[in-house]
Write a structure and sequence with these properties.
two-stranded antiparallel ribbon, alpha+beta, 2 strands
């Protein structure tokens, strides 16, 4: 049993929101085959969530993203990387 921290009444709501997001965006779409597989899926999704996934509350920037000056890219310069077997698509620009 994990208790809610003292003087942090929203901690429980934040944890519930995170669990809801993980279930809806990831675990509802993956057949987990064991504990090691679950650990791999959750670590991969957490890395994507914190480094690549845009968040509305942060002006569509990921929390741990490497923020650089915006660069205009042609559509032909954009590539897709599949994560978790194609469940998540990450896009990135290639050097010209």
């Amino acid at each position: 049993m994990i208790l809610t921290p003292i003087r942090a009444p929203t901690a429980n709501a934040i944890a519930e929101r995170w669990i809801q997001t993980v279930r809806r965006e990831c675990l509802d779409w993956v057949l987990v085959l064991g504990r090691r597989h679950l650990d791999h899926v959750l670590r991969t999704y957490a890395a994507h969530y914190n480094r690549r996934r845009p968040h509305r509350s942060l002006s569509l920037v990921a929390p741990l993203a490497d923020v650089r000056d915006p660069v205009l890219l042609m559509p032909s310069d954009v590539r897709r990387r599949d994560v978790l077997g194609g469940l998540i698509h990450e896009y990135y620009g290639v050097a010209a």
